[in-house]
Amino acid sequence: MGNLEQASAADLLTHLAGKPVADALMDRYDGLTNLSKASLDELQLVKGVGQSKAAAIKSAFLLAQKLSQETFPEFPLMDTPERVADYLREANRAYTVENLQVVYLNTRKRMIGFQIISQGTLDMILVHAREVFAGAIIRRAASIVLAHNHPSGDPTPSAGDIQVTRDLIRAGQLLKIEVIDHIIMGRRTEERPKDYASLRELGYFAGY
Q: What is the CATH number of domain 81-198?
């Protein structure tokens, strides 16, 4: 098949309809613009083009047209701890053990992916940097936000949470993928109106 990205229009038509038909189409229509305007009936006037081949050729042009018209929803903005917590809150309510989660961000801090990396016991998660950053590399993420839940409801970071965060910050620096924050999800109480903690806001990212 060769390298299709480098193929000429005639070569691509050859892959689609065979060389004799491709040559006949290029001769008759003198380029892709005129060919794209041909109806199914007109295409079938070319020797070797039956109904199925005409439909395949027309479909290729219609697909290209739809691709050019395709729009994408705006990815959610994750530029503050509050926005990350808002996104994670409902899912984390149901967890009875700790779940390490990663939010993948583009250069504008918009979410381009989300993944649960691991589940732990009631109060401990085993974390491997390779698992955390593998998804970021695949998605070409510029940065990530770490998150996990505390089933106890108290989002205060433990010594282990702080150490894991610092280890992953350093790993991200080597990979040039910034760790923006680590959000710990808990539950609100009368004494604790905020149901999450941001390790960045608490100062644990200082010096990195």
A: 3.40.140.10
Strands, E assignment, the chain: 99-105, 111-119, 143-149, 178-185, 196-198
CATH 1.10.150.20 for domain 4-69, yes or no, is yes
Mean pLDDT across 82-92: 94
pLDDT at 2 over 80: no
Residue 10 per-residue DSSP state: H
By CB atoms closer than 10 A (0-12, 13-18, 19+), residue 157 is buried
Q: Mark 192-201 as b/e (b = at least 16 C-beta within 10 Å).
A: eeebbbbbbe
pTM listed for this prediction: 0.67
Contact 55, 40 (CB under 8 A): yes
Same fold, 4-69 and 81-198: no
Largest Cα–Cα separation, the chain:
82
